[in-house]
Amino acid sequence: MNRYLNNKSLVIAGAVVALLSFSQCTPKQSATVSSAPNTTPQADQSKGLKDYFKDDFLMGVAVSSRSIRTDSALILKEFNSVTAENDMKVGVIHPAEDRWNWKNADDIVAFAERHHIKIRGHNLLWHKQGADWMFTGPDGKPASKELLLKRLHDHIFTVLSRYKGKMYVWDVVNEAIEDGPDTTMMYRESSPWWKAFKSPEFIEAAFRYAHEADPTAKLYYNEFNSERPDKREKIFKLLKKLKADKVPIDGVGFQAHWTVGRPSADQIRKALDEVISLGLEVQFTELDITVHTKPVEVISGKAPVDPGFTPEAEAKQIDKYKMVFDIFRQYKKHIKAVTFWNVSDRGSWLDSRGGGSAGDPIPSPAVFIKAYPLLFDVNNQRKKAYWAVVNK
Ligand code: G3I
After folding, report:
1. Cβ of residue 135 lying under 6 Å from some atom of ligand 1
2. Cβ(286) to ligand 1 under 6 A?
3. How far is Cα 194 from Cα 171, in angstroms, rounded to an integer?
4. What is the pLDDT of residues 91-108, one digit of tens each?
5. What value does the CA radius of gyration of the chain take, rounded to a whole number of Å?
6. Residue-number span of the structural domain to which 331 is assigned
7. Would residue 250 count as lying in a domain?
8. What confidence tier does 305 reach under pLDDT thresholds 50, 70, 90?
9. For ligand 1, is residue 7 a contact (CB within 6 Å)?
């Protein structure tokens, strides 16, 4: 294996990058940013994101049972909504038909309730981190549609009953639309759910079960790259079908795994306009903006170059964050929450993807390139992008 890509090297590379970023985040070295947004810290340091946006929408963050302990001070100061990054996913919480892992999910719910923070449920049906056992029948053969629907029903009822009235929103179905640019390929046909049903019946069923199980929770369809015109068209078709079929859907989650290069303001607005035209509400559910525009090229035998959090990258990220929050404010009537995917640049799911974002090819073996995608730096301190976002 390429010596730059093995595990040991990844750890060393990560440590070097973290040290470099640490020095880049100290005030004396902070980069000169020439762009217009006001990144000067405001005097009132006692306020958090949730206070700056209290008249607009909730401010959320993806958490784990670990981060609610290690980062609790920052979470409590800045946010008033949390999403479990992994701990409520089907395969994690329900790894076998008769086995449930409630501990981490319960801890997150208890933390949120203790501090009067709202909780988004994530998620009830996804092609990843699912429960493989659901797809095999007792005879070892592929489960029938009837059995799959029963298992989906029982899963949804068990989870939603346990947390009834505690979740204000559930991401019911996650990423069921094909990400590729071909608009004739509407659904993600590689999903085990699609393979079993060959129709969107399972999508509708999941929403109906969730509504029956907890009629108070808002029910969302959650997707990434939703602003890209070809994918936007496919998502719009699905949403129109769900509405026409009177499926109980309340809103759409735009995951918002973005880069400093995409999407454009126009693309975000068009996607929002379409969803709103159907009478649906919106949340930005997994926001992060990587400073890289594409994954690094891995040339055999050479160490991938990690440019780090350069002044140029910082300036571009500030501009992008400012642009998207300007749009969020303009659409605040329809946007119920904006959730960041991970707490700070100390650790992001993007860091092991070679600098790419959702939908980009992932270098294999993994390449560790830090993405610096959030509003807090590797020391959990507010970045200039933070001030650009809160200073209107
Ligand atoms: O917990 C296990 C650990 O026991 C094991 O030793 C280790 C070895 O790989 O894996 C750990 O699980 C990892 C898990 O994250 C927790 O860290 C999984 O391998 C890893 O695949 C998983 O990645 C998650 C990813 O979803 C799965 O596709 C990311 O943390 C999570 O941020 C990401 O979140 C998704 C949203 O749910 C949906 N939208 C896209 C978003 C990013 O992919």
Report:
1. no
2. yes
3. 18
4. 999 999 999 999 999 999
5. 21
6. 49-390
7. yes
8. confident
9. no
pLDDT at 23: 35
Is residue 24 situated within a structural domain? no
Residue 334 belongs to some domain of the structure: yes
Tell how far the Cα of 358 is from the centroid of ligand 1, in angstroms.
13
> Which is more confidently placed, 8 or 110?
110
Work out the average pLDDT over 282-291. Answer: 98
Indicate yes or no: pTM above 0.85: yes
Looking at the domain assignment, is residue 117 inside a domain? yes
> Mind spelling out the 3-state secondary structure of the chain?
CCCCCCHHHHHHHHHHHHHHHHHHHCHHHCCCCCCCCCCCCCCCCCCCHHHHCCCCCEEEEEECCCHHHHCHHHHHHHCCEEEECCCCCHHHHCCECCECCCHHHHHHHHHHHHCCCEEEEEEEECCCCCCHHHHECCCCCECCHHHHHHHHHHHHHHHHHHCCCCEEEEEEEECCECCCCCCCCCECCCCHHHHHHCCCHHHHHHHHHHHHHCCCCEEEEEECCCCCHHHHHHHHHHHHHHHHCCCCCCEEEECCEEECCCCCHHHHHHHHHHHHHCCCEEEEEEEEEECCCCCCCCCCCCCCCCCCCCHHHHHHHHHHHHHHHHHHHHCCCCEEEEEECCCCCCCCHHHHECCCCCCCCCCCCCECCCCCCCCECCCCCECHHHHHHHCC
What separation in Å is there between the alpha carbon of 349 and the centre of ligand 1?
7
Mean pLDDT across 157-163: 98
Both structure tokens of 182: 């071909």
Tens digit of each residue's pLDDT (9 = 90 or more) over 176-221: 999 999 999 999 999 999 999 999 999 999 999 999 999 999 999 9
Closest approach atom of ligand 1 to CA 92: 1
Mutating to test ligand 1, I would choose from 7, 85, 103 the residue with most ligand atoms within 8 A of its C-beta, which is: 85
Distance, in Å, from the CA atom of 215 to the CA atom of 213, rounded to the nearest integer, reads: 6
Q: How confident is the model at residue 355 (pLDDT cuts 50, 70, 90)?
A: confident
- Ligand 1 atom 22: the closest Cα is on which residue? 86
Number of domains in the chain: 1
The residue behind tokens 């440019």 is 307
CATH number at residue 95: 3.20.20.80
